[in-house]
Amino acid sequence: MLVREFLKNPKFEVNCFIKIYDCTENPNREASNLIYNGFVSPTKISENIFDMELSHVSTDDLETIVLEVKKVESKQKHLVVFLTEKGTFSLKFYFESVPPTVEYIERIQNEIQERLNLQDIPCVVNWLPLAD
Questions:
Q1: Which tens digit of pLDDT belongs to each residue from 91-105?
Q2: Would you tell me how many other CB atoms lie within 10 Å of the CB of residue 19?
Q3: Is 54 exposed, middle or buried (0-12, 13-18, 19+ CB in 10 A)?
Q4: How far apart are alpha carbons 8 and 24 in whole angstroms?
Q5: Which of 9, 24, 35, 78 has the highest count of CB atoms within 10 angstroms of its CB?
Q6: Which residue, 121, 116, 119, is CA-closest to 91?
Q7: If 0-12 CB within 10 Å is exposed, 13-18 middle and 19+ buried, where does residue 90 land?
């Protein structure tokens, strides 16, 4: 489960203080880096953290949830088909999760707009998995 799926889940609310440790290199929380410490706030937590995978959830007292996370190792290559004011195009992207979240699709659309120097935001209409 990704951090995004836990903290931004519309089916339940996480409303407390959290500590997030990056346990990618070391599974021992005490030896890992504290990468976020504060109230759950989608605007203050970086997208890089939301894209990390939960490896352990616990509490350190009655008020704080502790998340141990690690970077997602396997990204899946996809051909993304999108529409622009100039026509239909496709580019390769590496998805962090399948199916991609709405937020991830929006990031892809913004990245395509920047890459191709488009005036309007393109519309992603499909994605196809690619073999390595």
A1: 888 787 778 888 888
A2: 18
A3: middle
A4: 22
A5: 78
A6: 116
A7: middle
